[in-house]
Amino acid sequence: MKTEFSEVTETRKHLTFEVPPDVVDSAIERVARDYSKHARVPGFRAGKVPAAVVKQRFKDQILQDVAQDLIPRAVNDALQERGLEPVAAPDIKDVVIEEGQPMTFTADFETLPPIDPGEYAGLTVRKPAAVLEVGAVDKALERLQQRAARWHAVEDRPSQMGDTLLMDLTRTRRTSVIEIPGEGRPAKGGMDDKPEAMQNVTVEIGAPANPPGFDEYLSGLSAGDKREFAITYPKEYEIAELAGATVDYDVVVKGVRRKEILPLDDEFAKEVSELGTLEELRAKVREDLQHEAEHEADHQVRHELLQQLAARLKNPPEVLVDREIDRRLEELVRRLMEQGVDPMKANIDWQQFREGQREPAASTVKSTLVLDEIGRRESIDAGDDDVAKEIEKFAERSGRTPAAVKAALEKEGGLDRIRAGIRREKTMSWLIGKANVIS
Description:
The structure is a single chain. By secondary structure, the protein is an alpha+beta fold. The chain has helices at 21-38, 51-57, 59-82, 136-147, 214-218, 266-272, 278-310, 318-338, 350-377, 384-398, 402-412, 415-434, and strands spanning 2-7, 12-19, 91-96, 103-110, 124-126, 150-153, 164-174, 196-204, 226-232, 246-260, 436-438. Helix content is 46%, strand content 18%. Strand 3 (91-96) and strand 4 form a beta hairpin.
């Protein structure tokens, strides 16, 4: 077998292959014999079809089977001979195979670049002070008040500021605006109408996130009322898809509720916690906020350390960067679905999202590769006990038994990912322990 190797870049490699005709013909004969045992050809008994007939009648399938058999072996032999380890399956192209002729094809793949982490014990990183902002406790208590608010149906008056409406809503976005002559307001309808119906939408009148003009049109309504109106968004509106657009709204009110905010007192503390007094609640909130601030400070140390590691590697394999972008996109889709949002209706430019994630994804890949190299040099590993503890955590969060989680991970090939994650976490802890942390 003839091969030619070339380095396209520091990470991207190219191999061309030429498999001798005798190897190809031998494989064709072997596959043709297997076909003849099961082939059904008019005029011949099962298992008695001549090899020449089989090769002619099933030529394309036989050549495909031969290629699928010979190519992986040829690629693996060439990689082992040169001591190359692709980070993903090689991309096979330009396959040419015919009986009596050499089979030729190419393989493009990426490998890890040379990784020199340099001096890594004793890195200097800055840890921000874990200090609470003025009024942080009061703001947290206000958020608790909002979450603990009680709702009461409003039946004795129309809706007003502060009320929340439950309604079915249909909105139609227009790209062109036609004003009603003499009235200076947009007319409804048009060729650009694309109605979008939503059920059981809740809107608080006066909420900061409401579109401009919403509060005016939703005030003065009662359960069972219907209202149609159009809103033209400002050209500088923060949501790009709506900036400068006119949207028609048809709403049917199903209910009106008002919010009752509970006063901050001992009874409130008992309502929202297992504590007996407001002072105890305030102290617990302060403790939790302080813990969060310290966690954030530790996170900043880790982030700065990872940035320093990433700077020590210039060119990460593009396939790993794309894989990290895919992971981030999948995570975004998962979060949207958990929030009850259809990702396909979220007005997200997915291509723009991918491009926006390329730089941070590349930084993540670079820091991870350097971290792995440091772990290898320091002989940091994940033992069976470490993996078992991690599986127990997964099992507790998912409500399954550790045995079931382990079986699923083994089936999906996930145990290696668990071990890699543990090794990286141990390596990061080792680096932080050796680092010069300054305030």
